[in-house]
Amino acid sequence: MTEVAVQFSGRRGWWMVGLVWLFSLSASIVQFKVPPIMPVLMDELHMSVGTAGSLMSVLNITGVILAIPAGLIFKRFGYRAMGLLAVGSLILGSAMGGFSTGPGLMMLSRVIEGIGAILMFVLGPAVLGTWFPPEKRGLPLGIWLTYIPVGSTIMMVTGAGIAASYGWRFLWWAGTVFAVLVAIMFLVAIRPAPALIAERNEESPASIQLVLRNRNLWLLSATFACFSGSTIAVLTWMPTFLNTVRHIPLQVASPMVGLMMLINIVSCPGAGLLSDKLGSRKGLFLTGIAAFGILCPLMVWLPQSAFLLIITAVGLITGLVPSPIVQAAVESVDDPRLAGMATGVVFAGTNLGMLIGPVAFGAIVQGARSWSAAFVAAALFSFLGLLIGVFVKRRTPAGGCLESC
Q1: Do the domain assignments include residue 394?
Q2: C-alpha 124: how far from its chain's center?
Q3: Looking at residues 94-107, what average pLDDT do you find?
Q4: Residue 398 lies in a domain
Q5: Is the pLDDT of residue 401 over 60?
Q6: CB neighbour list of residue 20: distance below 8 Å, 6 or more residues apart
């Protein structure tokens, strides 16, 4: 395997973090426009509770299928082809959704949006990993990952109000326009470090097999699947729970849930910086997963007066998980050109969890007629991820040998 130097260019590297973050934000905005107006869509498009939950989960079907091939796309065709396919899928899917008059076309549009979302997931670490050495990747990757809570917070805080004033379709048209704008920015400004561009076309089938046979990556993938499935289920259905059970208007309920993601904006980069300082990824993400499993049922069991306190705690502890897991995946391979494939393996599991979580949560609510049962199930799913994560082995950010931790 030809050794590829990772280039750290100071200001240029941090400038690229900001550009890739803004580019990725379009995926988060498109993805999370559904939860704050779920009851509206159920009424307008004549959908059951289970079908409505699938509007989030169906977006991840393509993520399960394409996450690993997305890494191959990056390695074989480069960042430009992958980026254009990603943002093009967001534009097409969001526009189709705006024309939907029933669940069929809306479901199809969400699948297409899912293509864009998973390609964005894989593209970000693959590009940013070339600009920073391993021991300094924690903070930039943590900052980049805030695109998810920022986008979801924007939609949770503003989505219900915008839909009430201008109609739900306005959210789809706004997402389309924003995706077009970031597509122009991508063409003009975003690129990986020059060292990766120079080496991109050199194929290494043996190294690809090494990635796919990497036990640690698959354990990280399963761990993230359980955590993502439980958290996205809670995030998707919490506004509806507050609206239908606690009788809080959607315009109030959605911003309350959005507070959790708003706090993630601080906790995600904080976790990345802390993991760099400690030289440990595993301890942080296991702590976050365990704490979420404990706090999850309390969201429904504790009185409404304690809800904001629980939401604040959940926002802090869930931020401990994504950045360290992504960092651990990138550090599991030695060649930065394979970072896209490594994150692809992890995000395949993430999308599988996100596919199962909201549908299972909605099915439990509908079948058991119990919100408490659904929240307990989400907690148990998180604890399963904790159990799997215990078997993940540790690799130092500087590239040291694997060891149990």
Answers
A1: no
A2: 11
A3: 90
A4: no
A5: no
A6: 123, 124, 127, 128, 144, 190
